[in-house]
């Protein structure tokens, strides 16, 4: 087991290096740098000026060396610009290069400076991650239990009416990406002109113009502002996990050992709870874990749609404003989340499944 | 003339879809009559779920085909005074022969929402299925040998597939679908690699089967290579000498990215199925009579994997549709006035709280298509598992 | 259940009919089935697969799934009708009064629950026993089913046990509540013969100890004879003959029962002098049964206008012990007459040596742990294999699972290369030549027939296409037309209608698929054919036909047949020489007569004694082996068989534990790999004795 975890960890680190390098490479492509030069410098810069800006700001040289600097395993660049001011990766322009550390990369905790937020990437990102954390937490609380219940209930009696109703719901919800469900939910529940809200307002059942709020903010987490974003993300996941759980449950329910249990005289409820459930939940566990990367997508869409200033919103801003350091930071976080969930899913699978654990 | 009532709107929309209804009726009548002779496709008509799914999918397919007849207005045209107008609004000063109403209202640029939605079907359905098909070609061409040979090849390919899968899709799109990327030529390079796979696949397929009869083999492989590279030169490098095959750089960028995102999942599915099927006796029988590995992979194993692959193909078209919508939603890689559903939803959401119809119409369209594909896949799965 | 009188039947099935309702049609799986089990009786239910045995068993449990329904008749258990019983009442009977055991032991146990919990559950449900007490009872029953170290077993998960141990646990589970009736549906089919023998013994003893009645389902007549005192023969959803075992075996009164006995290889059968007689035709599908007698189209006593007129009722045979038959002509048939046409065949000449293996070794290196970590281990799949095979000869390779039979076949075919040693094929050394490097002639002259008929043909290619492909690969013929013609000839050769060329494999029955497999193997004029359990998955009546076909083609083409099998009956019937393998070693080799009579290798002796024989004139010495076959990953030191050998004490100085025994060559070239001295070997007694008729 430790050998297995060590191997997985090794693979994970390797993956992380490759992925961050790919992101670094893609964000630091020459056209991106030129765009950066024009937005930081001036739009009307000549091509030569752009080229020299790029070099003077440490974006020249081989991409490997720059990646190494960003990581913190290659000494940070230093240069002197046209005006004779000393510039470098590890110190503010004009200050003394000698006093600055030689290495300043991710490994040293320096994630660079965000041009969009006008402050270092790390603290900016940390705040945003906190905001998204709340959103994710509520999504998980809503999504996982309801999906498992739906899946188990519809899978335990395949073909029954309950099964048909719940399966139809699951299929419909997996067919509804976040940007569709978000739009429909807002139109139905958070629009002053359509859906329920005008009716409710007319009857005087609600105070404001709309039932739920069509926008959310991390500073004001309430039932009225969070319901729609959380539901929007959760809906897609519920359908997906419920379908996996149902498939797994129906398979288990037709297994011979379930028949054995029934023929031992175990009651239906006990068959489901004691014999089927554990076996049926092994497969969905993996699915739930691997759902995280997809949740990340949902988060980006929903935060954009509801203007919620969290991680996803930041990612969109970083990409839209060509904020290379911020985008790199976002990528590292995203990749890290994905890899950790994969690891947890692998280990959890082994733990849940005695057949693998004990062999 | 008055603003139309909801019933009237519904009636007029249904009437507008007339060519689709006729085509659907014909398809269903014919398929139902011959369903016992049509294999898996015929069995679909034994399953209500599958039939509903197939109906919805075909509805949109026919809509895409007959879009020119169905639309009431030019989907790009702007009409003064129609900005954000609600459903069923009369078009003031309609010219002779011009349609009289905006059935589903106008959007924020005073364009007809209904016509844009109909045209959107065409733009989505002309990308999603072919992109999925290419992803399958790539996934199959790599997944089959990985599953069959195992070992280092498998380890390497699986590692790469997992790398791609570890990227959150949106991040990948933000990195891969940008005007700057197009300047570097990366999409063309990716296309050059990805578009080779279908040619490679078909060549190996035919060679493995016909190498015992060189005359036939040379003919078939020759035709494939000729046609393949002709299309290849046009699609990947936009240099088809005859100018038949070409793809807009924007579109190429989107297309390639979608293929790139989908292929690893297909790879994993194919690999799993092959690992399961390669233990069968008929595979051993092939080996003991000295068949080459490619014949065994492509002619003995692959045909028996078709059930789950067809099911996944349907699901994956739906997923690709969602991805394309996501791209549109973030305004990546599409022309600003494109009628595709993702961008229309994005346009509409800015005025969502006050004028939801502009976003809701394409949203429902997209949802119904994906739902149809999911139901179809479910029906197919159910039927292929039976007997 | 106080009002039930123990002199009454415990189970009384009366005119039971069961149908499955599928979307297309109703499938009448069981029709008008009656049978009675008295307390303490063991009733055997035999018949070919698909005749409805399991359906009857499941109907008794009222477990027919969503599609199955009892359409007529009644099932009385201790006088109460089960067919009308409510769910809750049924639940109380299941597991406590009636228990069931079925084929796949691994699948019958919950993989995520400890054995102890699964066992203890039964008394906890049915008699409200406390947890601790239930575990104590479980421990006692586990000891009762003769499993070592019950405490460890109770705390393990199913996958940690071997197949034989799992089946013992399933039996223990069935016995937890001391049921009055035990239903066993092919309980040993998935197990090796030596393990099966142990289980059968156990079941018999326990049934006696607890006074349990049994309904024992099997396709194996010999096994039924070992276990049961009464038998019910089923054919196509009906009971065709029932009675006490000895009477039905010796004085059968139904043509199907008779045909069945004539088609199984009993001692005395011989491929040349007394060949088996297969039952012509195919088993009818439940919804395509003929008018009148179901067996009519295949019955040699069929009388037109009479047998196909109306449903045939079950009639009692006067003077019998509750003996009944479903045949109109039972009292007209001369049951003692020998079979009409037995085509006696000439013995084939044995030619020169075609294949010679010398000191062949095949080791695999596998990783130790489940996660790829851990030390690599060497699995010795084949250990110094040496033998010769001659032209026109049948060499049987006998052994249980894991003994290296299939590895040997793979090495010979060139799918794997040997670790060391040599394989001479027509004076050409092919030992280290993988199949891709062999020339077409070599490849086409060594071919294989596979075990599983459902797996041997590619399900998505027509039968004809698959044979033609083999011809293409073997470079037969110049044009497609030539190959097409040859393909049709091959279909003729295996006695299949030419129309089958256009069929898909799923439209063929198991036996027909196996014939196509044979045609494909002989497409390139194979000189050496490896048949890996070619008939073990087929029903007995089909087995005979396929075996005969194989023999005929062999005789004609003078092919060398390497016949891999675990079924000693069929091996004795058709082979010229036999090679017995255990854990990668050849433990005994000689002519069929040498191997089947003493002196034996201790393993062969046990194997012979384990195989049930459906003949009341045969007496077998019972030798039940302890434990299971060790894993090839972890073989015992010294003699591979020492963990289960009953002769070990006869070898002085614990030699068996330390040293791999040498091969002793006895007279006539009979080889035995054992430390036992000549004197001890000489003193061995025959396992099988046939009483004079
Ligand atoms: N669930 C089912 N649905 C339809 N047909 C079935 C089902 N179960 C069994 N049958 C049919 O009933 C017949 C008897 O089957 P079974 O009782 O399993 O036979 P056996 O145990 O003797 O091999 C077969 O023809 C089989 O195809
Ligand atoms: S009734 Fe006729 S066909 Fe049927 S078994 Fe008896 S003799 Fe044969
Ligand atoms: S060598 Fe010893 S243990 Fe092995 S079979 Fe002979 S007597 Fe038994
Ligand atoms: Mg059965």
From TrEMBL, chain A:
Membrane-spanning segments: 9-29, 135-156, 177-201, 221-242, 281-306, 326-352
A Pfam family that the UniProt record links to this protein: BPD_transp_1
Source taxon at top rank: Bacteria
UniProt entry keywords in alphabetical sequence: Cell membrane, Membrane, Transmembrane, Transmembrane helix, Transport
Gene3D superfamilies registered for this protein in UniProt: MetI-like (1.10.3720.10)
Residues in ABC transmembrane type-1 domain copies: 129-345
Location (main, coarse): membrane
Family classification: Belongs to the binding-protein-dependent transport system permease family.
Protein name as catalogued: ABC transporter permease
Species of provenance: Tabrizicola soli
TrEMBL record, chain B:
Gene3D superfamilies listed in its UniProt record: MetI-like
TM segment ranges: 13-33, 45-67, 127-149, 156-177, 183-206, 218-239, 251-270, 313-334, 354-377
ABC transmembrane type-1 domain mapped to chain residues: 121-377
Membrane topology: Multi-pass membrane protein
Keyword Acyltransferase: no
UniProt entry keywords in alphabetical sequence: Cell membrane, Membrane, Transmembrane, Transmembrane helix, Transport
Location in or out of the cell: Cell membrane
Record-linked Pfam families: BPD_transp_1
SUPFAM superfamilies recorded: MetI-like
Chief subcellular location: membrane
Family the UniProt entry places it in: Belongs to the binding-protein-dependent transport system permease family.
Record-given protein name: ABC transporter permease
Organism of origin: Tabrizicola soli
Organism ancestry: Bacteria, Pseudomonadati, Pseudomonadota, Alphaproteobacteria, Rhodobacterales
UniProtKB/TrEMBL annotation, chain C:
Name of the molecule in the record: Dipeptide ABC transporter ATP-binding protein
PROSITE patterns linked: ABC_TRANSPORTER_1, ABC_TRANSPORTER_2
The ABC transporter domain, residue ranges: 11-261, 355-608
Family label: Belongs to the ABC transporter superfamily.
Keywords: ATP-binding, Cell membrane, Membrane, Nucleotide-binding, Transport
MF annotations from Gene Ontology: ATP binding
InterPro entries reported for this sequence: AAA+_ATPase (IPR003593), ABC_Ni/Peptide_Import (IPR050388), ABC_transporter-like_ATP-bd (IPR003439), ABC_transporter-like_CS (IPR017871), Oligopep_ABC_C (IPR013563), P-loop_NTPase (IPR027417)
Compartments it resides in: Cell inner membrane
Domain of life: Bacteria
Signal peptide: none
Stretches of the chain forming a coiled coil according to its record: none
Membrane-protein topology: Peripheral membrane protein
Alphabetized SUPFAM superfamilies for the sequence: P-loop containing nucleoside triphosphate hydrolases
Nucleotide-binding listed as a keyword: yes
């Amino acid at each position: 087991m430790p050998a297995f975890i060590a191997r997985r960890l090794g693979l994970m680190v390797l993956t992380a290096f490759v992925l961050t390098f790919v992101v670094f490479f893609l964000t630091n492509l020459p056209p991106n740098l030129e765009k950066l030069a024009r937005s930081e410098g001036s739009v009307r810069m000549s091509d030569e000026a752009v080229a020299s800006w790029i070099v003077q700001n440490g974006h020249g040289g081989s991409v490997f060396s720059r990646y190494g600097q960003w990581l913190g395993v290659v000494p940070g660049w230093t240069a002197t610009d046209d005006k004779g001011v000393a510039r470098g990766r590890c110190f503010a322009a004009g200050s003394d290069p000698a006093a600055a550390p030689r290495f300043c990369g991710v490994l040293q905790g320096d994630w660079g400076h965000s041009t969009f937020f006008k402050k270092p990437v790390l603290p900016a990102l940390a705040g945003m991650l906190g905001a998204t954390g709340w959103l994710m937490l509520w999504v998980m609380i809503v999504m996982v239990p309801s999906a498992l219940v739906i899946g188990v209930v519809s899978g335990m009696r395949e073909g029954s009416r309950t099964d048909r109703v719940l399966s139809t719901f699951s299929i419909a919800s997996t067919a509804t990406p976040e940007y569709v469900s978000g739009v429909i939910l807002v139109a139905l529940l958070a629009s002053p002109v359509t859906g329920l809200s005008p009716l409710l307002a007319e009857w005087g059942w609600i105070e404001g113009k709309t039932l739920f709020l069509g926008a959310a903010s991390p500073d004001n987490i309430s039932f009225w502002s969070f319901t729609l974003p959380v539901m929007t993300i959760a809906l897609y996941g519920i359908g997906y996990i419920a379908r996996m759980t149902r498939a797994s449950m129906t398979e288990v329910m037709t297994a011979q050992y379930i028949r054995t249990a029934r023929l031992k005289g175990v009651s239906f409820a006990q068959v489901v709870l004691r014999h089927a459930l554990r076996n049926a939940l092994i497969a969905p566990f993996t699915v739930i874990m691997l759902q995280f990367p997809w949740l990340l997508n949902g988060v980006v869409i929903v935060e954009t749609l509801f203007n919620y200033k969290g991680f996803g919103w930041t990612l969109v801003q970083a990409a839209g404003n060509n904020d290379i350091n911020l985008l790199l930071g976002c990528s590292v976080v995203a990749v890290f989340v994905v890899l950790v969930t994969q690891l947890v899913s692998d280990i959890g699978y082994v733990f849940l499944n005695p057949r693998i654990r004990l062999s | 003339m008055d603003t139309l009532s909801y019933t009237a709107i519904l009636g007029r929309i249904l009437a507008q879809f007339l060519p689709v209804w006729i085509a659907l009726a014909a398809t269903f009548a014919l398929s139902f009559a011959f369903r016992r002779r049509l294999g898996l496709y015929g069995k679909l008509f034994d399953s209500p779920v599958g039939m509903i799914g197939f109906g919805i999918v075909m509805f949109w397919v026919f809509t895409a085909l007959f879009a020119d007849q169905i639309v009431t207005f030019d989907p790009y045209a702007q009409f003064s005074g129609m900005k954000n107008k609600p459903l069923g609004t009369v078009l003031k000063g309609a010219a002779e022969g011009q349609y009289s109403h905006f059935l589903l209202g106008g959007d924020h640029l005073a364009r007809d929402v209904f016509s844009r939605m109909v045209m959107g079907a065409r733009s989505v359905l002309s990308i999603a299925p072919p992109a999925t098909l290419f992803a399958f070609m790539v996934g199959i061409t790599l997944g089959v040998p990985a599953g069959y040979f195992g070992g280092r090849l498998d380890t390497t390919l699986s590692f790469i597939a997992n790398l791609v899968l570890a990227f959150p899709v949106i991040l990948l799109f933000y990195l891969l679908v940008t005007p700057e990327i197009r300047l570097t030529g990366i999409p063309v390079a990716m296309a050059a690699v990805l578009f080779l796979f279908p040619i490679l696949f078909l060549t190996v397929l035919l060679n493995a089967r016909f190498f015992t009869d060189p005359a036939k083999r040379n003919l078939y492989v020759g035709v494939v290579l000729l046609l393949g590279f002709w299309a290849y030169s046009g699609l990947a490098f936009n240099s088809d000498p005859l100018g038949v095959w070409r793809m807009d750089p924007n579109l190429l960028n989107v297309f390639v990215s979608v293929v790139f995102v989908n292929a690893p999942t297909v790879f994993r599915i194919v690999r799993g199925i092959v690992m399961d099927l390669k233990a069968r006796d008929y595979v051993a029988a092939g080996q003991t009579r000295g068949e080459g590995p490619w014949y065994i992979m492509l002619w003995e194993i692959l045909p028996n994997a078709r059930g789950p692959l067809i099911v996944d193909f349907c699901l994956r078209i739906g997923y690709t549709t969602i991805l394309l919508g996501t791209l549109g939603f973030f305004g990546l890689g599409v022309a600003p006035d494109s009628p595709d559903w993702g961008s229309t939803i994005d346009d509409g959401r800015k005025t969502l709280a006050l004028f939801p119809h502009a976003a809701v119409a394409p949203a429902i369209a997209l949802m119904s298509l994906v739902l149809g594909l999911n139901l179809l896949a479910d029906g197919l799965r159910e039927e292929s598992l039976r007997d | 259940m106080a009002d039930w009188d123990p002199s009454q039947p415990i189970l009384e099935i009366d005119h039971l009919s069961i149908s499955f309702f599928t979307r297309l049609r109703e499938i009448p799986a069981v029709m008008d089935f009656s049978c009675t089990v008295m307390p303490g009786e063991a009733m055997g239910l035999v018949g070919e697969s698909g005749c409805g045995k399991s359906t009857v068993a499941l109907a008794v449990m009222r477990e027919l799934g969503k599609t199955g329904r009892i359409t007529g008749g009644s099932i009385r258990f201790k006088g109460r009708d089960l067919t009308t019983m409510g769910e809750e009442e049924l639940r109380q009977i299941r597991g406590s009064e009636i228990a069931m055991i079925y084929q796949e032991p691994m699948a019958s146990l919950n993989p995520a629950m400890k054995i102890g919990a699964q066992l203890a559950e039964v008394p906890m449900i049915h008699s409200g026993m406390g947890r601790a007490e239930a575990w104590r009872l479980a421990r006692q029953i586990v000891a009762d089913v003769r499993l070592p170290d019950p405490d460890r077993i109770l705390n393990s998960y199913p996958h940690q046990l071997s197949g034989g141990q799992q089946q013992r646990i399933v039996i223990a589970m069935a016995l937890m509540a001391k049921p009055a009736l035990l239903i066993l549906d092919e309980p040993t089919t998935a197990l090796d013969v030596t393990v099966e023998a142990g289980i059968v013994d156990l079941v018999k003893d326990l049934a006696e100890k607890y006074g349990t009645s049994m309904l024992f389902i099997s396709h194996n007549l010999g096994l039924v004879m070992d276990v049961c005192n009464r038998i019910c023969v089923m054919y196509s959803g009906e009971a065709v003959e029932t009675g006490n075992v000895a009477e039905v075996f010796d004085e059968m009164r139904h043509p199907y029962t008779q045909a069945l006995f004539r088609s199984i290889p009993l001692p005395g059968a011989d491929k040349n002098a007394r060949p088996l007689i297969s039952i012509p035709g195919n088993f009818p599908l439940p919804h395509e049964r003929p008018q009148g007698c179901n067996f009519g189209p295949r019955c040699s006593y069929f009388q037109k206008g009479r047998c196909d007129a109306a449903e045939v009722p079950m009639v009692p045979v006067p003077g019998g012990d509750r003996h009944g038959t479903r045949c109109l002509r039972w009292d007209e048939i001369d049951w003692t007459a020998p079979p009409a046409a037995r085509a006696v065949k000439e013995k084939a000449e044995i030619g020169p040596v075609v294949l010679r293996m010398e000191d062949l070794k095949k080791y695999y290196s596998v990783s130790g742990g489940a996660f790829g970590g851990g030390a690599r281990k060497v699995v010795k799949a084949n250990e110094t294999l040496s033998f010769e095979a001659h032209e026109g000869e049948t060499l049987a390779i006998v052994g249980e699972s894991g003994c290296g039979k299939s590895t040997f076949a793979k090495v010979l075919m060139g799918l794997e290369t040997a670790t060391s040693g040599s394989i001479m094929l027509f004076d050409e050394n092919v030992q280290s030549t993988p199949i891709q490097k062999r020339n077409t002639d070599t490849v086409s002259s060594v071919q294989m027939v596979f075990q599983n008929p459902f797996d041997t043909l590619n399900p998505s290619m027509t039968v004809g296409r698959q044979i033609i492909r083999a011809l293409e690969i073997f470079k037969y013929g110049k044009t497609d037309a030539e190959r097409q013609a040859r393909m049709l000839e091959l279909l003729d050769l295996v006695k299949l209608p030419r129309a089958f060329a256009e069929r898909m494999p799923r439209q063929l029955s198991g036996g027909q698929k196996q014939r196509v497999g044979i045609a494909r193997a002989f497409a390139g004029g194979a000189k050496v054919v490896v048949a890996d359990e070619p008939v073990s998955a087929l029903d007995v009546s089909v087995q005979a036909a396929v075996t005969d076909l194989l023999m005929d083609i062999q005789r004609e083409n003078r092919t060398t047949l390497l016949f891999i099998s675990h079924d000693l009956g069929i091996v004795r019937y058709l082979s010229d020489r036999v090679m017995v393998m255990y854990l990668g070693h050849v433990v005994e080799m000689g002519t069929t007569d040498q191997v089947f009579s003493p002196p034996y290798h201790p393993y062969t002796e046990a194997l012979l004694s384990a195989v049930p024989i459906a003949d009341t004139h045969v007496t077998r010495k019972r030798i039940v082996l302890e434990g299971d076959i060790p894993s090839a990953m972890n073989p015992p030191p010294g003699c591979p068989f020492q963990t289960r050998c009953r002769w070990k004490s006869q070898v002085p100085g614990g030699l068996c534990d330390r040293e791999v025994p040498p091969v002793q060559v006895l007279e006539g070239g009979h080889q035995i790999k054992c430390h036992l001295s000549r004197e001890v070997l000489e003193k061995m007694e025959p396992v099988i004795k046939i009483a004079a008729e």
